[in-house]
Structures are given as C-alpha cells and as structure tokens.
Specification:
Order of helices and strands: HHHHHHH
Largest sheet: none
Radius of gyration: 25 Å
Shape: globular
Structural class: mainly alpha
Number of domains: 1
Distance between the termini: 81 Å
Number of helices: 7
Length: 204
C-alpha cells in the first residue's frame, strides 16, 4: 500500500506577459499625451517676455555706441530669462504632476547648450568686431534651442523654434541696419504671438 503524497499548494500563476505589456503601453501613451499638451513654455510668460523684447529693441535702437547697444540687449535678455524662469516654475506647480516636473527639467537641459553657445559666440564675435552678426546669431541659436527642447514639449514650441531660425537666416541676409528690427520681430513679436496661442490653447 503506497503512502499518500502530500498535496502541494499551487503557487499563483505570474501575471500574463501580455497584461504587463498592455499596462506599459498605457503608461507610455499617457506620458506622450501629457508631453503633447504640456508646452513647458508658459503662455503668459511668453507674452511678458515678448513685451520685454519689444522694449529692449526700442532701447537698443536709441543707443549711440555699439557697447551701449550690447549692454541694452544683454539687460533685456537677463530680464526675459528671469521672467521666463518664474513663469515656467509657476506653470509647473499649477499642473502639480511629478512627470511634468521631469519634462520641465529635460526642456531646460535641452535649451541650455544652444544658449551657452550663444553666449560664447557673443564674446567671440564682439572681440572680432563683428557685432553686426549678433542679431542673426542670437535668433538662430535661440530657435535651435527651442527645436531641441521642443522634443519634450508640444509641437507649437518646435514651430516657434523654426520661426526664430528663419528670422535668424533672414537677419544674416538682410542689411546690418535691420538687426534690431529682426530682433524685435523675434524676441518681441514671436514671443507674444506664440505666447498668446499657448495661453489660449494649452493654458498657463
């Protein structure tokens, strides 16, 4: 007579692979949807930056020397960057999602290299006596930064980057005396126009 074997307690089957894959796909889809609607660029902040850009263009045009012109634009850039940083932080806190904060950090990290390159080229061009090349350089590199950072934001940000780059190319092709006009159209007009669009469509 054979002895009865103890009944083993069956372990619960692991979750089906296709179930985990479906959850992963849902998470990826949700993340992509968030990145498509969150522009990272604050609309109201963009409008304010545009107003600062227009004021900077007026102030720079009124300067009598190239050094005073450069100081006017550098002061304008500093004020615009500070305004944009405050508005970006406020918009991210308003949304209040951890993934949004992650996208904001990626946006800033992607935007910084072209801006640093612009600062270095500014010093190099100024020392070489090529101040007339600065408007095109600034517009082109800022547009490049928006294009790269726009990978972590809505499509409208990349569109704004393309417009800035186009203005930069036009500034290089146009007479040097038109530099402030292109700067006003870009850092003033484009910021305000796209800022209003983002504010109405994407909020913030």
């Amino acid at each position: 007579m054979s002895s009865a074997r103890p009944i083993r307690r069956l372990r619960p089957e692991p979750r089906a692979l296709h179930g985990r894959a479906a959850d992963d796909l849902a998470f990826i889809r949700e993340t992509m949807e968030r990145s498509a609607t969150f522009t990272a660029v604050p609309g109201k902040g963009g409008i304010a930056m545009g107003a600062i850009g227009c004021a900077g263009a007026i102030a720079a045009t009124a300067q009598a020397t190239s050094a005073a012109w450069l100081i006017a634009w550098l002061a304008t850039a500093s004020a615009a960057v500070a305004t944009g940083a405050v508005a970006l932080t406020a918009k991210s806190r308003e949304v209040g999602e951890p993934s949004i904060h992650g996208m904001r950090a990626k946006f800033v990290r992607s935007l910084l290299p072209p801006l640093v390159a612009g600062a270095l080229l500014t010093a190099a061009l100024w020392r070489a006596g090529l101040a007339t090349a600065l408007p095109g350089t600034w517009l082109l590199l800022y547009g490049t930064g928006l294009m790269t950072a726009g990978a972590f934001s809505a499509r409208v940000v990349r569109g704004m980057g393309i417009c800035f780059m186009a203005l930069g190319v036009a500034a290089f092709a146009a007479p040097a005396a038109w530099g402030d006009l292109f700067m006003a159209l870009g850092f003033g007009g484009l910021h305000m126009g796209f800022g209003f669009w983002i504010w109405r469509r994407n909020g913030g």
